[in-house]
Amino acid sequence: MNAVLQYLLYLASLIALAIPLETYIKKVMDGEATFLSKILTPCENAIYKVMRVKKDEQMNWKKYVASVLVFSGIGLIFLFLLQLLQGQLPGNPQHLPGVKWDLSFNTAVSFVTNTNWQAYSGESTLSYLSQALGLTVQNFVSAATGIAVLFALIRGFTKVRTDGLGSFWVDLTRTVIHILLPLNLVIAICLVGGGVI
Questions:
Q1: How far is the CA of 36 from the CAs of 24, 44, 156, in angstroms?
Q2: CB–CB of 108/76 below 8 Å?
Q3: What sign has the CA pseudo-torsion 154, 155, 159, 165?
Q4: Hey, CA dihedral for 40, 44, 45, 50, is it positive or negative?
Q5: Mean pLDDT per 10-residue interval, the chain, length 197 residues
Q6: I need a surface site. Which of 35, 76, 129, 169 has the fewest CB within 10 A?
Q7: Closest CA to 109 of 148, 83, 147
Q8: How far apart are CA 32 and CA 39, in angstroms?
């Protein structure tokens, strides 16, 4: 009976947290102000300036899909090469050799598609650089890509007669800066508070 009570409490907590989180995510993706906007919007605007992204651009579905594929393709190639060449790169105090091409490709595909399947022991196969610059970055940007595509799909259904699904680059940036990084910080604080090393 105690386990059932724990499951019900956990489910109730998830539902209670989902409602404000849903409202926050909707505001972020619609470009509305939130309680974190004063801090995070300047960072968001700086990224647009560096990337030369127009914040109000409306992409059609072909341009949106092309942007997703180009971004994911660059991430795939970068992560694949990072693993292959890790033996010659810095950030490898254990002097681990490069990962075999088939395992590198498998890992790169799995992280770019946000399945994060690993067929190896991370600490004995991948260098610190490969884990930090490769896998950790893909954990954020692949999740952000999925969220961006979801919102483009929602806009496609709700804006049937209007042109444009928004900008993939804006959706990606907003998701990382306004949703994933703050959520990660809150969860990390909760884990540290709970005694996780």
A1: 10, 12, 28
A2: yes
A3: negative
A4: positive
A5: 91 94 95 95 96 93 96 97 96 94 95 88 88 94 96 88 86 97 94 90
A6: 35
A7: 83
A8: 14
